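Figure 6 in text form: structure in, sequence out.
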């Protein structure tokens, strides 16, 4: 059950209502829960950027968000001096924007 434009709380309450209705009418209930292992760690920036085009944001906001996800690098100091690596994926699940970013691309993943 994928419900768009609804909070998680509303979706859970709706699901519980459907389960209770089915049980009260002596119907069987089957619930399948999907947990995508590593979904936040493997979230590709290109997928996020492509999903941004579906938003009704002004062009300056969209370009700023796309710029944040373009040409990202990780830099660390090593015994041999600084080292950099291009970062093409990854989003912290517990970050302020993590769930919002995941919601941008969840339709693509589920399809």
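Output sequence:
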């Amino acid at each position: 059950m994928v419900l768009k434009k609804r909070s998680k709380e509303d979706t859970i309450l709706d699901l519980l209502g459907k389960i209770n209705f089915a049980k009260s009418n002596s119907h069987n209930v089957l619930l399948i829960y999907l947990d995508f292992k590593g979904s936040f760690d493997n979230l590709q920036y290109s997928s996020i950027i492509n999903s941004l085009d579906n938003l009704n944001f002004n062009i300056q906001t969209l370009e700023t968000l796309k710029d944040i996800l373009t040409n990202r690098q990780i830099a660390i100091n090593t015994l041999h001096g600084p080292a950099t690596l291009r970062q093409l994926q990854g989003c912290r699940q517990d970050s302020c924007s993590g769930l919002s970013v995941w919601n941008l691309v969840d339709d693509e993943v589920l399809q």
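Caption detail: The chain is about 45% helix and 10% strand.
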